Amino acid sequence: MPNQQEITAANELLSFIYDSPSIYHVVSNLAKKLDEAGFEELAENRRWKIQPGKSYYVRRNNSSLIAIRVPEGEADSFLVSAAHSDSPCFKIKENAELRNDSYVRVNTEKYGGAIFSTWFDRPLSAAGRVFVETENGIEERLVRLQDNLLIIPNVAIHQNRAVNDGVALKANVDTLPLLALGRDDVSINTLAAEAAGVDPEKVLGKDLFLFCSERGCLAGARGDMMLSPRLDDLACATALLRGLMEAETVNQISVCCIFDNEEVGSGTKQGAGSTMIRDILRRLVTALGKDEEDFQILAANAVFVSADNAHAIHPNHPEYFDADNSPLINKGIVIKFNATQKYATDGKACAFFRSVCRKAGVGTQVFFNRSDLAGGGTLGSILSTVLPMNTVDIGLPQLAMHSAFETAGVSDYLSLIKAMTGFYEA
């Protein structure tokens, strides 16, 4: 049974996820936490003044964020961690409404590898950002439409007798959410404008996504499981940042990255495959009065923790897993390995991270894919090609990855916070 500290941390995570329905809300809410902790925001289009002993953060596209703590003394390496802000979902198209005499539906396209069927028959809504015309120019505003606004209804078994035998689902037909009944004149654009506090004609652009509007909860006979949307990867993102903020200052440059677009390959200006981390750390080092060779030395000595949730062995389908190399929920942080470098962990980085976890009193487990099954990739290999670093891929064990509602462990979450606090004090 989890203790009170573990329960409190888990409930804080669930509240954060509920309050962060889009990537833009995620980064905005993380930035507020950094502001409260005394971090100063830097803008990429302004000159920087960096002082030893101070803490900073930079946003790009308002969907990615890098936070940095600069030591008082001379640093000889970067301590870097990274997670991602995005999760598989559906993005709303520009001309969204599909109307007939019976229904108003919303036209969407899939974002990332969602398990489509888990989005059916759940209360959904839409959130993101809109760009509005004002007297002072174009302004970006975050919007969250009312909870329980939309639903994707299943076809009843009476009309689809093969529904339990496996049905091919089409993103242009089966996953379009229902907004209203009859020939209603309601529109997503009008609702988004209302949420932004402007007339619809003032909305010049928008990035809106569906989200599951159910609040996460603790579950299980002993209350030791978390059920929530977007545990992958907001559990890691929030734990990494807490570790950075709670660690005692050491003579290393501590860096925490939260990247967008991991679920679609990271190849964007705000993704892990972009120049973002290299741009920001190079500028930081230069602003501290160091040169390019100093930057290269810091990078060569760097240690990088790539944090993206891992697959716990499934209770009904253990045959999909390598029996001797698959983790269990609430048994510790997972270190992930893959010979083809889907995960970038090597023995050196693994040893360092295990040492950190032991000092923090935190258990570790391992994950290998079953050798004949290809697994998913993550940020480790991508980011370590942008900035060559000793890399370990880790995550929290969970079930139902990429489902609309996922399952993870209450105790594991606090373990990651403790481990990352220890990492930044290493």
Architecture per CATH nomenclature, i.e. the level-2 architecture of the largest domain? 3-Layer(aba) Sandwich
CATH class of the largest domain: Alpha Beta
Instruction: Kindly report the average pLDDT value.
Output: 95
Beta content comes to: 25-35%
Question: With helices defined by DSSP (H or I, 4 residues minimum), what is the helix count?
Answer: 9
Any idea what the CATH superfamily of the largest domain is called? Zn peptidases
Give a quick account of the main beta sheet: strands, pairing sense, barrel closure: 9 strands, mixed
Structural class determined from secondary elements: alpha/beta
Approximate helicity band: 25-40%
Question: Do you know the CATH topology of the largest domain?
Answer: Aminopeptidase
Strand order of the largest sheet: 1-2-3-13-4-14-18-16-17
What integer value in Å does the Rg equal? 22 Å
How many distinct folded domains? Answer: 2
**Uncertain regions: pLDDT < 50 for 5+ in a row?**
none
H/E topology pattern: HHEEEEEEEEEHEEEHEHHEEEHEHEEEH
Q: What best-fitting shape do the alpha-carbon axes yield?
A: globular
- The number of E-state strands comes to 20
State the distance separating the first and last CA atoms: 30 Å
